[in-house]
Structures are given as C-alpha cells and as structure tokens.
C-alpha cells in the first residue's frame, strides 16, 4: 500500500539593520504545529547582502525544526515500543 503526503514549511524573515531573523512554522497531519527561529548577524564591515542573511537565518531555523521533528519521532517510537531510542543528533 502506497501513501503520499506532503509538508509545507512557512518561513518569514525580518531584516533589522545588521540582524536577520527567520521564523518557520510546520503543521503536521496529526495537528502538531512546530515553530522554530534562526538568526544571522552581519558584521558592520561586511557588504549588505540581505539574501545571504536570510539563507543563514533560514538554515538555522530549519536545523531547529529538524531537531524538533527528530525529538517528536523518537518520542513516538519510545511510546510505542516501551524502549528508549537514540536520535542521531544527540
């Protein structure tokens, strides 16, 4: 039996001077909403490249989101099996 599903991550960026922040939201099929944030700081002597700040802040937010997904999945594995599982990121 084949099952297809998809996720959409909403990401917003705010650029304030030398700081870029990213906020991500992921809604899962079970109703769970995971939220994550990431930041990037530009050194005052660096050229202004908003896209680069967004990429760094976005990557950091997505890394946080990935960690939350691993924690959630391993919690579900533990609850189902009664054993402790070990995520690769710890």
What's the quick description here?
The protein contains one helix and three strands; from the N terminus they run βββα.
Span between termini: 33 Å
Structural classification? alpha+beta
Helix fraction, binned, reads 25-40%
> Which of globular, elongated, flat, extended, rod-shaped describes the shape?
elongated
Query: How do the helices and strands follow one another from N- to C-terminus?
Result: EEEH
- Tally of alpha and pi helices: 1
Order of neighbouring strands in the sheet with most strands:
1-2-3
Largest sheet: 3 strands, antiparallel
Which blocks of ≥5 consecutive residues have pLDDT under 50? none
β-strand percent reads 25-35%
- Radius of gyration over C-alpha positions, nearest whole angstrom: 17 Å
Average pLDDT: 90
Number of strands: 3
